[in-house]
Amino acid sequence: TTLTPGLLEVVRNNRNQGRKGIKAFEIARGYFSSKKPEAKDSDWPILSSLQRKPRHLTAKAYGETKRPRERTFLSGILDQPWTEKNWFNEQEIASFFHAKQVVNSLLGAFGTQNITWQKPEKMATELPFLHPGASCIVVADNITLGYLGEVHPKVAFNYDLDDVIPVMFELDLEAIFELLQNQKTNINANIAK
User: Fold this and answer.
1) Per-residue DSSP letters for 106-138?
2) Angstrom distance (rounded) from CA 163 to CA 155
3) Could you tell me if 16 and 91 are in contact, meaning their C-beta atoms sit under 8 angstroms apart?
4) Chain-wide mean pLDDT for the chain?
5) Which residue has the higher pLDDT, 43 or 98?
6) Sign of torsion over alpha carbons 26, 131, 91, 138
7) How far apart (Å, rounded) are the C-alpha atoms in residues 123 and 100?
8) 186 class by beta-carbon count within 10 Å (0-12 exposed, 13-18 middle, 19+ buried)
9) 64: pLDDT confidence band, cut at 50, 70 and 90?
10) How confident is the model at residue 39 (pLDDT cuts 50, 70, 90)?
């Protein structure tokens, strides 16, 4: 359901080899139960994307109840430090704001507009692997695109990363494509007027 564990393993393996400050990115699919999300789950912004039909399924395949729902994610993790100390600069620690800058740049490259950064009401249960005081969900035009934040200290401890905690993000590419399609449709409608 998330690419987070794999990225945390990558950071741990790199640190064990003496490599610090890596920036790792991955595009892969997440798999979810084909059952409809429960009513209480449908209120969670992160799970709201599961209610939409995936782009890679035909109408017949989408109706099959045994087929898992797949979502394509773009995830990244920023290990510490953001920049090394050198003759001209002090060492800079990667923070929530660095991840926000990376995500903003990625979404800008897609042409995404109207991006907002929101704190979910159910942070502890919806994103338990992120620090509740340094994380958020990414929304544009009422479509949840993903989330970002510092890894929760307990999760970092379980991966032996508690000395300096990395920052990560995960974006739902299918939600981004849907958003871009909606924005393109709105632009074309305005031009037609």
Assistant:
1) HHHHHT--SEEEE--TTHHHHSTTEEEEEEEEE
2) 12
3) no
4) 80
5) 98
6) positive
7) 17
8) exposed
9) low
10) very low
